[in-house]
Automatic annotation (TrEMBL):
UniProt EC number: 1.2.1.-
Protein name (Swiss-Prot/TrEMBL): Aldehyde dehydrogenase
UniProt keywords, alphabetically: Oxidoreductase
The keyword Oxidoreductase is annotated on this UniProt entry: yes
Active-site residues per Swiss-Prot or TrEMBL entry: 249
Keyword DNA-binding attributed: no
Taxonomy, superkingdom: Bacteria
Organism field: Dokdonella ginsengisoli
Domain Aldehyde dehydrogenase stretches: 19-474
GO molecular function: oxidoreductase activity
NCBIfam families named among the record's database cross-references: PRK10090.1 (NF007497)
Pfam (any one): Aldedh
Family named by the database record: Belongs to the aldehyde dehydrogenase family.
Signal peptide: none
C-alpha cells in the first residue's frame, strides 16, 4: 500500500477525503510510489487564511528568534539527510550523489538565510527640513505563495521559505505535482519543531487547480515562482487581477563560449558537467556552445569522449551514475523531438541521438550535436535534457552577438586565458550571470536573476532577501 499524504495547514496535517489525489511515480521505473492531495480552492483558502493569521505575531518576533526556528528546521534536515535524499532519488530520478548534495545544500541555505537576522538593515536619510529625520524601514510583504518546479524540488523549498521567514513573512508552498513527496516529508520534519502554527503551510496539487487558486488569491501579497516561461507568464497575468507582486525564476538557454586560447580540457569538462548534471534539467545548464573555428574539432573530440563515457540508469538501484532518467514522458518526448528536428535541419549527431532502451523509465542517451545554425530550434529553445549542440564561430564578436540573440537571459559562460576577452564578455553578455573558466552553478550568496524571458527579480544573497521585503518611509518632525 502506497502512502497518501495530507496537506499541512496551521500546524497540522489535514485530511480532505473528498478531494482528488495525484499519483506520484518513479521516473526510472514508472512505479507508483505515493499519492498526494490535489487541493481545492477551499483548501488553498484555508492555507492562506492560516498564513494570514500567523503573520502579525511572526513579524513581531525579533529576527534572531525567527532565525532560531530556521536553524531548528535545518538541523532536522541534517538528522534525516539520508532518507530525504532517497526520496528525491525515487520521485525525481536524480542520481544519489546529487540528491545528497541537494539535501545538504538546502540545510546550509536555511542556515545562511538565518544568518541575515542580525544584518537586516533600513536606512536613515537626510532631510530638506530642520529637525526632521527620515527613516527607510524594511518590512515583510505579508503572506508569500511559493510555487515550485520539479528539478531541484527540495532546495527550492528553502529558496522560498528561508528568506521569506527570516524577514517576517509567512508562507504557503505548493510543490510540483511531479515531485511533491519531498515537500511533504519536509513538512513532517517542520511539524517536529516548534515553529508557530501557520507560519509554513503546504498544499499539494496541480497547476490548474491548487496553483491557480493560490496565485489568484487576494490574501497573497507576493508570489515567488520558479518554473517555465509559459507558466510564469500566465501567473503574472493572473496576479495582475489583484496587483499581487511577482518574483519569477524562469527558463534558460545558457550559452558557453570557448575561445581558441582556452584550456580545452577544462572547458570540455566544465561544459559537459553543466550539461549532464540532473540529466540536463537545470535552468542554468550550458544549453548551447559557440566555439572558435580553430579549436572546434579539438573541443568536440574532448566532449565526445566525455559524452560517450556517461554512465546512466536507474539511480534508485545504482550508485555512482552521471545521469538518471528525464522526469516524465512529456520531457522525454520533447527532447527526442528536438533532436529529430535538429537532425532533419541538417545538424550532425556525434554521440547519442535516441531514447535509451533500458526496459522502463524515461531515459535518453547523452547526445552531442555539431553543425548547428543560429536559426535552428536546438540553438534557440530550452532543451532541458542531456543534449548539447555546438556551433563554430569566427571570433568573440560573433559569439557574443549569437549568445545575446536569445529570448532567455539567465546564465552564460566563457572559457579563455585572456583577461581582456573575459572582461569584454562580462561587459557585453546580457545575462544575469556569467561564469568564467568554470561550470555553470550559482552560489547562495550571489544573486540568481534572469533577464528578458528568464524572469523578473531574483533569488539568493542580500538582493534575493530584500525581494521579500517592502519599504516603509517614516518622516519624524521634531521641534
Ligand atoms: P512548470 O512551469 O511546468 O511548473 C512549475 C510549477 O508551476 C508547478 O508547481 C506547477 O504545478 C505550477 N503551475 C503550473 N501552471 C500553473 C498555473 N496556471 N498557476 C499556478 N501554478 C501553476 O515548470 P516545471 O516543468 O516544473 O520546471 C521546469 C522549468 O523551470 C524549466 O523551464 C526551468 O528552466 C525552470 N527553472 C528555472 C529556475 C530558475 O531559477 N530560473 C530553476 C529551476 C527551474
Amino acid at each position: 500500500m502506497q502512502p497518501t499524504y495530507q496537506n499541512y495547514i496551521a500546524g497540522a496535517f489535514v485530511g480532505t477525503p473528498d478531494e482528488p489525489t495525484i499519483d506520484v511515480t518513479n521516473p526510472a521505473t514508472q512505479e507508483l510510489i505515493a499519492r498526494v492531495p490535489d487541493a481545492s480552492a477551499a483548501t488553498v483558502d484555508a492555507a492562506v487564511a492560516a498564513a494570514r493569521r500567523a503573520q502579525p505575531a511572526w513579524e513581531k518576533l525579533p529576527p534572531i528568534q525567527r532565525a532560531g526556528h530556521l536553524r531548528a528546521i535545518a538541523a532536522k534536515l541534517r538528522e534525516h539527510r539520508t532518507e530525504l535524499a532517497r526520496v528525491i532519488v525515487r520521485e525525481q530520478g536524480k542520481v544519489q550523489g546529487l540528491a545528497q548534495v541537494e539535501v545538504d545544500f538546502t540545510a546550509d541555505y536555511i542556515d545562511y538565510m538565518a544568518e541575515w537576522a542580525r544584518r537586516l538593515e533600513g536606512e536613515v536619510l537626510t532631510s530638506d527640513r530642520p529637525n526632521e529625520s527620515i527613516f527607510l524601514l524594511r518590512k515583510p510583504v505579508g503572506v508569500v505563495a511559493g510555487i515550485l518546479p520539479w528539478n531541484f524540488p527540495f532546495f527550492l523549498i528553502a529558496r522560498k521559505l528561508a528568506p521569506a521567514l527570516v524577514t517576517g513573512n509567512t508562507i504557503v508552498i505548493k510543490p510540483s505535482e511531479e515531485t511533491p513527496i519531498n515537500a511533504f516529508e519536509f513538512a513532517r520534519l517542520v511539524a517536529e519543531t516548534d515553529l508557530p502554527a501557520g507560519v509554513f503551510n503546504l498544499v499539494g496539487g496541480r497547476g490548474a487547480t491548487a496553483g491557480e487558486a493560490l496565485v489568484s488569491h487576494p490574501g497573497v501579497d507576493l508570489i515567488t515562482f520558479t518554473g517555465s516561461v509559459a507558466t510564469g507568464s500566465r501567473i503574472m497575468q493572473t496576479a495582475g487581477r489583484n496587483l499581487t507582486r511577482v518574483n519569477l525564476e524562469l527558463g534558460g538557454k545558457a550559452p558557453a563560449i570557448v575561445l581558441a586560447d582556452a584550456d580545452l580540457d577544462l572547458a570540455a569538462k566544465a561544459i559537459y558537467d553543466s550539461r549532464v548534471i540532473n540529466t540536463g534539467q537545470v535552468c542554468n545548464c550550458a544549453e548551447r556552445v559557440y566555439v572558435e573555428r580553430g579549436v572546434h574539432d579539438a573541443l568536440v573530440d574532448r566532449l565526445a569522449k566525455l559524452f560517450a563515457a556517461t554512465r546512466y540508469g536507474d539511480p534508485s538501484v545504482e550508485a555512482d551514475l552521471h545521469m538518471g532518467p528525464l522526469v516524465n514522458q512529456a520531457g522525454l518526448d520533447k527532447v527526442a523531438a528536438m533532436v529529430e528536428q535538429a537532425r532533419s535541419d541538417g545538424a550532425r549527431i556525434v554521440v547519442g541521438g535516441k531514447r535509451a532502451d533500458l526496459g522502463r523509465g524515461f531515459h535518453y542517451e547523452p547526445t552531442l550535436i555539431t553543425g548547428t545554425r543560429a536559426d535552428m530550434d536546438i540553438m534557440r529553445k530550452e532543451i532541458f535534457g542531456p543534449v548539447l549542440p555546438v556551433q563554430a564561430v569566427d571570433d568573440l564578436d560573433e559569439a557574443i552577438a549569437l549568445a545575446n540573440d536569445s529570448e532567455y537571459g539567465l546564465t552564460s559562460s566563457i572559457f579563455t586565458r585572456s583577461l581582456d576577452s573575459a572582461m569584454r564578455a562580462a561587459r557585453e553578455l546580457r545575462f544575469g550571470e556569467t561564469y568564467i573558466n568554470r561550470e555553470h552553478f550559482e552560489a547562495m550568496q550571489g544573486f540568481h536573476a534572469g533577464r528578458r524571458k528568464s524572469g523578473i527579480g531574483g533569488a539568493d544573497g542580500k538582493h534575493g532577501l530584500y525581494e521579500f521585503t517592502e519599504t516603509h518611509v517614516v518622516y519624524l518632525q521634531t521641534s
